[in-house]
Amino acid sequence: MGQGHTLNNGLVIPAIGFGTWQILLNGKAKNAVAEALKAGYRLIDTAKIYGNEKGVGQAIRESGIPREEIFLTTKLWNSDQGYDSAIDAFDDSLARLGFSYIDLYLIHWPATERRHDAWRALQDIYKVGRAKAIGVSNYMVEHLEEVLGESEVVPAVNQIEFHPFVYRRQQPILAFCKAHNIVVEAYSPLARGSHLNHPSITEVAKKVGKSNAQVMLRWAIQHDTIPIPKSTNPDRIRENLAVFDFELAKEDMQRLNNL
Ligand code: A2P
After folding, report:
1. Nearest residue (CA) to ligand 1, atom 6
2. Residue 255 near residue 72 (C-beta atoms within 8 A)
3. Fewer CB within 10 Å, N or C, the chain?
4. Nearest by Cα to 135 from 187, 192, 61, 67
5. Which residue in 108, 190, 146, 159 sits closest to 5, CA to CA?
6. Is there a catalytic annotation at residue 50?
């Protein structure tokens, strides 16, 4: 299932994850995460704002898979930025999930000036081991520079929208993260399903004998990012994991880069 990446603090994160954005109901998220864990996903991504932490936590517990074998991410919502409010929000997320620690806690968006105090809170949460790693999401180069300038702890991860149709816009962020040893997680790696049937993707898919979705995920993996596709359909949940037995040629990567 791929090699996984070693984060800048030594923690290993799986090479692909399961996203739960827009799987808004706890019950629905619980079923989807249960399917994902059964299929073999070990990285599960949620956020306070998705409103499904309770269902995600239940699915993990009921799976019977030891907690330490699962890499669980959740995120601090914008209105909780600030020091005390971030600590409180983290406690509440933990309580909803029903665990004693989170593998990765992210600031969801740069959003407000209180993100600086929030980052201090995340560092304290990290120092006592309640989050095994901390990072950010939707940070552009300027926000990352800010964090690097104000803190000893380099974010382990920046989670951004990443698929061929935003490549041009996101490429500078990807390059910056690579240069600073920040792993990029790719959310909406299937462009929310909207461009799956683009003729270029279809042509590459035919060439490698894989589905269009698998080609998009493979593209993200070959850019050294961790895609976190989401699906509520068990067949597609499994299909999205089968992306480690083929490779895209340089010219096909290039072709998708140019979409
Ligand atoms: P569904 O839940 O019915 O499978 P993204 O991860 O980029 O946000 O994309 C999610 C969207 O892509 C969802 O609408 C999901 O629908 C759809 N999707 C997920 N996996 C596949 C796949 N393998 N083939 C086609 N559509 C997919």
Report:
1. 229
2. no
3. N
4. 187
5. 159
6. yes
Q: What is the pTM of this model?
A: 0.97
**Using one digit for the tens of pLDDT, what is the confidence trace for 40-91?**
999 999 999 999 999 999 999 999 999 999 999 999 999 999 999 999 999 9
**So where are the chain's domains?**
5-196+225-247
State the closest ligand 1 atom to the C-alpha of 236, by its place in the atom list counted from 1. Answer: 23
Tell me how far the alpha carbon of residue 145 lies from the centroid of ligand 1, in angstroms: 33
- Give, in order, the Cα–Cα distances in Å from 132 to each of 38, 69, 135, 137: 24, 13, 10, 17
Query: Was domain 5-196+225-247 assigned CATH 3.30.70.1350?
Result: no
Q: Locate the ligand 1 atom nearest the alpha carbon of residue 191 and give its number.
A: 7
Q: Phi first, then psi: give them for residue 160, nearest 5 degrees.
A: -130, 160
